[in-house]
Design a protein that fits this description.
- By secondary structure, this protein is α+β, with helices and mostly antiparallel strands.
- Among the domains are: 53 residues; 75 residues, no CATH class.
- It is 23% helix and 38% strand.
- It is built from three helices and 14 strands.
- A five-stranded mixed sheet has the order 2-14-13-10-11. A four-stranded antiparallel sheet has the order 5-4-7-8, with no helix packed on it. It has a three-stranded antiparallel sheet with strand order 1-3-12, with no helix packed on it.
- Helix 1 packs antiparallel against helix 3.
- The radius of gyration is 31 Å and the shape is elongated.
- The chain starts with a helix and ends with a helix.
């Protein structure tokens, strides 16, 4: 094989590899690279809401941020006893309606207990569960018993703090030793909240907890940091919103580079 043919093959392989790398990067699931926090599934009065956005350490380019978290579910227990006091049905539900299996004709008593928010330990002991409803039933034929009751509602409280007293360790890792509460909002029925009074260039932290209409309060979520109007956000925002143009530009630059090398070799050979 001549030296010119070898150069052609080498250049073709380099260009092919370059396309492969750029194409692989473009297909990588960047949006799925989310660090999931450890969430407890066993709490006293209820586990904390799961935070959705922004992620911990997020860099935001404006002074307005929309916070979002997952809704907290509540649970109920439906217990049916007959006239002899024997339990004929017992089931856990998350809606405010329950239907038993078909029961023989007779007299029954339905009791609806509140088992608490997700992860609550209330459901472990029936004596600790609040009784929401008691209903008497009399049937003359084998029937399914259906019971409805008012929902236990859940609202949310959001705390936003400004991080203060920054310190670093011997590895230059930054720590925020104290926080000052700058904004608190309670009785949120939605799982989103927008705040617009951030100071640019500062780092803040946020946390959410839930309160149900029975008076129980969940644990606080983990604290997440959000950085307002910092230079690090620029690169992230540009690539996130202009991913395809940047990839095409990269491809064109690789092609132009290889074409320039090839033309220079052709000119030297001539």
């Amino acid at each position: 094989m001549s030296s010119r043919s070898t150069i052609w093959v080498r250049d073709a392989l380099v260009i092919t590899f370059s396309f492969y790398v750029v194409f692989s990067l473009s297909l990588a699931p960047w949006n799925d690279l989310i660090i999931e926090s450890d969430i407890s599934n066993s709490c006293n009065e209820g586990c904390a809401p799961s935070l959705v956005f922004p992620d911990d350490g997020y860099y935001h380019y404006t002074d307005t941020v929309e916070f979002e978290w997952a809704p907290v579910l509540v649970g109920y227990r439906h217990i049916v006893v007959d006239s002899e006091g024997e339990v004929r049905y017992e089931g856990n539900v998350t809606d405010n309606e329950s239907q038993t299996s078909r029961l023989p004709s007779g007299n029954y008593t339905s009791s609806i207990y509140y088992t608490g928010m997700s992860g609550s330990s209330l459901g472990a002991d029936i004596e600790e569960m609040p009784l929401l409803l008691t209903l008497q039933h009399t049937t003359t034929t084998a029937s399914k018993l259906t019971v409805n009751w008012p929902l236990v509602t859940v609202t949310y409280s959001l705390n936003i703090n400004i991080n203060e007293q920054v310190s670093t360790d011997k590895y230059d890792t930054t720590y925020f030793d104290s926080f000052t509460l700058i904004h608190q909002v309670d009785n949120l029925e939605e799982t989103k909240y927008t705040y617009s009074d951030f100071v640019r260039g500062e780092t803040y932290s946020w946390t959410v907890y839930a309160v149900d209409s029975e008076g129980y309060t969940s644990e606080y979520s983990e604290f997440r940091d959000v950085n307002i109007d910092t230079t690090k956000f620029l690169a992230f925002e540009l690539f996130n919103d202009w991913e395809v143009p940047f990839i095409l530009l990269g491809v064109l630059m690789v092609i132009a580079l290889q074409a320039g090398v090839f033309l220079a070799r052709e000119e030297r050979d001539d």
